[in-house]
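Lab notes, practical 5.
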Amino acid sequence: MASATRSPLHSWTTVLPAVALVALAATWGRTLPPVLVVVVALVLAGVVLAAVHHAEVVAHRVGEPFGSLVLAVAVTVIEVALIVTLMVSGGPETASLARDTVFAAVMITCNGIVGLSLLLGALRYGLAVFNAEGSGAALATVTTVATLSLVLPTFTTSRPGPQFSPAQLAFAAVASLVLYAAFVLTQTVRHRDFFLPVPTPGTVDSPEEHADPPTGRATAASLLLLLIALVGVVGLAKVESPAIEAGVAAVGFPPSFVGVVIALLVLLPETLAAGRAALRNRLQISLNLAFGSAVASIGLTIPAIAIASIWLEGPLLLGLGSTQMVLLAVTVVVAALTVVPGRATRLQGVVHLVLLAGFLFLAVSP
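Output from the prediction step:
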C-alpha cells in the first residue's frame, strides 16, 4: 500500500528534471511570449521540488553531513558556471556580477535560510537546538573568506577602484580554496560529529528516516537526477531573467535587483531542504546547508573567476560598497551571537529575517 502511494511521487520527481531540460533546450536564447513565461515558471517551481526530493534521497543513503554537502556543492558549481558564462559573454557591464551574486548568496544563506530554519524550528519545538562547535567553525570560515575576497579589495591600493591586482587575486583564490578544503575535511572526516543533528526529545522523524536506506543504484539515479534538476533550475532561471528584468524595470527597481531575484531562485532547493529539516527538528542540517552554501559560494566562485580573468576583458570589481559592508558586518555579529549558545529562539530567527529584508530593501532602494 505504501509503495502504491509513493509511486506517483517518485514518477513525478523522475520526469520533471527531464522536462526541465527539454524546456531549457526549447527556450534558451529566445524571447518568450507571456504564456510561455508562465509555463516555464511552473516547470521551474516543479523542478525545484524535484531537486529537494533527490537531495534527501542521497542524504538518506550517505548520511549527514555528506547529504547537505552534496546539495550545497552541486548548486554552487552550477552557479559558478553560470556566473563565468555570463561574464565571458556579457562584456564590461558584468564587471561586478561575481561580487553582486556572491554577496547576495551570502546574505540569503546566512540570514534567509538560517532565519527561516530557526523560526520554523522554534515555532514548532519551542527551542532550536544545534551544535555550536560545527556551526561556529562554519561561520568563522564564511567570515574569513568573505573578508579576504569581498572586503579587502575596497581598501587595497595596487589598482584603482574596488579590485585586486593579479597577485592579490591569485592569493585570494588560493586562500579561498585552502579554507574550503579545510572546511570540507573538518566537516566530513576529522570532526564530523560537530555537524551531526543534536538528538532532542520531541523530534518528529519522517517515514523515510525510519525506512531502510535506498540502494546504491537508486542513490546513483537520484544523484544524477539531482544534478539534472539543478542544471534545469539555473538554466530556467536564466531563461526567465528577461521577463524578470522587464518586471523589475516596470516597477522601477534598479537593474542590479535582477541578480538578487536570480540568486533567490537558484537557492530555492537549499531553502526548501533546510526548512523541511527544521520542521523535523534537524536544525544542524539546516545550518550545514546555509553556512556550507555560503562557504562554497565564495570558496569556489573566487578561484573560478580568478582563472577566467585571464581572458576576461575589463576590470573585475570584487570590493563591496559601504552599505554592503555594514550589512555583512552586522550579519556576522548577529550570526555569532546566534550560534555560540548552541540553541536559539524564534527571536533570533526573526532578527535574521529582518536583516535579509533590509538587504532586499536596500537592493531595491540603494
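Observations recorded by the TA: Confidence is low (pLDDT under 50) at residues 1-9, 206-210. Strands lie at 128-129, 343-344.
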